[in-house]
């Protein structure tokens, strides 16, 4: 989870710094919200690294599927919370017309960020029962 938080912090910091360029009227409340949001996305993707099997569907959950779904879901919820601000930002970037002005493109962005976070969290932290700290833990 710590690795996911660090990667999420990096993406959140990019959003914190770049947001005024895309949305000039973005205040510090929105900027800090984006920063903390991506730290939370990293934590959620990292903590779900221990779930490698879906008990109801009886299917394995590879890291890339888990991470993409969680990142997309978290950004879908973010779009529902701040739809108007994201719509304004997409319009200011891409203009008035076109399908790309929809704020729901952030769901795809969340899937990509979740994939990146999941890759590093799995690569350096492990997955399932074989996580970094469980290997050395006396309780395993």
Series of secondary-structure elements, N-terminal to C-terminal: HHEEHHHH
**Overall tally of structural domains:** 1
As laid out across the biggest beta sheet, the strand order is 1-2
Overall structural class, as computed from helix and strand content, comes to mainly alpha
Rg (C-alpha, Å) = 17 Å
Strand % is under 5%
Cα-to-Cα separation, first versus last residue: 18 Å
What fraction, in percent, of the residue positions are helical? over 70%
Mean pLDDT score, rounded?
86
The number of helices is 6
- Which ranges are low-confidence, i.e. pLDDT below 50, for 5 or more consecutive residues? none
Please summarize the sheet with the most strands. Answer: 2 strands, antiparallel
Number of strands: 2
Shape: globular
Oligomer: single chain
Commentary on this structure:
The structure is a single chain. This protein is an all-alpha fold and 140 residues long. It has one domain. It is 70% helix and 3% strand. The protein is built from 6 helices and 2 strands, in the order H-H-E-E-H-H-H-H. The chain has helices at 2-22, 28-47, 63-81, 83-94, 105-125, 132-136, and strands spanning 53-54, 59-60. It has a two-stranded antiparallel ribbon with strand order 1-2. Helix 2 packs antiparallel against helix 3. The longest helix is centred in the N-terminal third of the chain and has 21 residues, at 2-22.
